[in-house]
Amino acid sequence: MQMTKFKIKHSKINHIFISHLHGDHYFGLIGLLTTMGLNNRKSELTIHSPKNLKEIIELQFSVANAHLPYPINFQVLENEGTIFEDKKIAIQCFRVNHRIETWGFIFSEKKNARRIDPQKVALHDIPSSFYESLQEGHDYISSSNEIIKNELLTSPGPESKSYAYCADTGYFEPIIEKIEEVDLLYHESTYLHALEDKALDRFHSTTKQAATIALKAKAKKLLLGHFSSKYDDLHLFQCEACEVFENTECALEGTCYLA
Q1: Residue among 24, 86, 232, 233 flagged as catalytic
Q2: pLDDT score of 60
Q3: Distances (CA, A) of 172 to 65, 188, 189
Q4: Which of 23, 148, 200, 246 is the most exposed place for a label (fewest CB within 10 A)?
Q5: Helix locations, 83-149, DSSP H
Q6: What is the pLDDT of residue 87?
Q7: 3-class DSSP state for residue 249?
């Protein structure tokens, strides 16, 4: 429903990452999978999750006597490290500290392609078949063996970005080396810091604990989320966290954030 509200196309989703099997993190999945089927999806969907999710999903479809028109590839999270990689992005998982097996994720852009200068490639009569090589940083060698340096034909592409997702978790310093210097860090902040003892007991984090992780990891920006429903004023979360790590915002539904 939220994806429809915010006009996010189901067809663009090819990978789903589930951190752990507490209901607020995956109960809606069966509805999303069904909706994709009703929209006549044909392409494969990969779900990265802790073990047992495949059995849960297959049982739900079996009881409903439902069949999807597309294949699902279940990838079980077992070891820390890279779980997906292509030309544009690398995705890694790492363990966090919660009541059950729970994983965090890092999404790291590969080095972005260089920008081609249309006027300069036209001036040097560079064939379009070589454009991809130019974007990868290669020099061009003409038919007369003249070397035309790449920097004469292109400019640097956008700076690559990284995003780390850490939820649900208590304060857990071992993740710091995993998320060091990320551009955007999402870290759960279930409670204000006055409830630090409650956070410890329930394997969750407070505002200042999340901010301390961001500070020690040298993150560029912190995004707080997973707020307890006991709070009405989320601005208090930002105020507390900013005392430790200034560049902090609260995650609000339907909002886009820039690192």
Answers
A1: 24
A2: 96
A3: 43, 12, 13
A4: 23
A5: 118-123, 131-135
A6: 86
A7: strand
Alpha-helical (H) ranges within 115-234 are: 118-123, 131-135, 150-153, 196-201, 207-216
Q: How do residues 137-158 score in pLDDT, each as one tens digit?
A: 999 998 889 999 999 999 998 8
> Has this prediction a pTM greater than 0.85?
yes
Instruction: Please state, in angstroms and rounded to a whole number, the distance separating the CA atoms of residues 96 and 173.
Output: 9
Q: Name the pairing type of β-strands 162-166 and 154-155.
A: unpaired
pLDDT at 143: 85
5, 55, 4, 63: which is closest to 26 by C-alpha? 55
In this structure, the dihedral spanned by the alpha carbons of residues 236, 242, 245 and 246, taken in order and rounded to 10 degrees, is: 140
Percent of the chain with pLDDT over 90: 87
Query: 24 an active-site residue?
Result: yes
Distance CA 171, CA 185 (A): 14
